[in-house]
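User: quick one - fold this with magnesium ion bound?
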Amino acid sequence: YEAKQSSAGTAVYAPESDHHTADRLALLADLRRALEDPAADEIAMYYQPQVDIATGEVVGVEALLRWHHPRRGLVDPEELIRVAEQTAVMALLTRRVVDTVVHQVAAWAAAGRPLRASLNVSVRDLHTGELVDQIARLLAAHDLPPYLIQLEITEGALMADPRRVLATISRLDRTGVAIALDDFGTGYSSMSHLRRLPLTEVKIDRSFVLGMAVDPDDAAIVRSIIELSGALGLRVVAEGVEDERIWRALHAAGCHVAQGWFHARPMPADELMTWLGRYRPVVPARLPAPRPLA
Ligand code: C2E
Ligand code: MG
Ligand code: MG
Ligand code: MG
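Assistant: Sure. Structure tokens for the protein plus magnesium ion:
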């Protein structure tokens, strides 16, 4: 896909342009095939550790979709979701994601290594009760405690059809599945969502986290999200923690959980087990004082 320059100078994907339509349809047809053909082994879930900043302990993982297309190679999940989201293929994709992740969590629990997994769902997934039914069914089938599964939703999902989305979220909450607000700070009317929804976690968008070591404005935004969320009793996760300076700055700001390349990249389930076996908790407090931030 090509990116179009907007007047603001940022790259914008333009799904409405005719130029892209044939390509988009081909991609969707390939996705459907990859999902429906039992012999296709193209779609996998990768898992990225989430680390408690104060203790260094791994508290969970985020499950992230990877599609290795036979000709295109690795497809950017963000673009893929943007295209799939407008169609019925999204439901198929989410069904696969949920199924794979809950099975994986059950396997870890059965192996004596219970690990909480957080998975992403899109706007459309929240418009029917199907997702909640599927999750409830799988949890029961595997005899899994619901707190081992968390769903990440974005504010965009809430804006599209607040009534139906709220109904789904309330059902999820009653099931005991935790809900995180993803990409926080990039959407609209953020503050009211924090108060109105049964959330347990807020994820600070990585654009702010990445900027925090170099841009005082980003650092200020991150600090105030942490403060606000903390005051409302929500766990705060920073994503995009790429290096030690950001990790230290988050620690100083009182952020609870870090997720990013500083600790580990998303990886297949078997690699994650190897990584966990080698991992030794590190906490900023036991290290020498940091250099001052921007
Ligand atoms: P997200 O949910 O906000 O996921 C976090 C993204 O940050 C992931 O990108 C992850 O690989 C990336 N990331 C993690 N640590 C770092 C870091 O230190 N630096 C940088 N630069 N990036 C980091 P990814 O895997 O490309 O996924 C992009 C987006 O696609 C996700 O954003 C999510 O919105 C969507 N997505 C991914 N998997 C799924 C899925 O299974 N279902 C749905 N509906 N959406 C998904
Ligand atoms: Mg996410
Ligand atoms: Mg995010
Ligand atoms: Mg995102």
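One thing worth noting: Residues 89-110 form the longest helix (22 residues).
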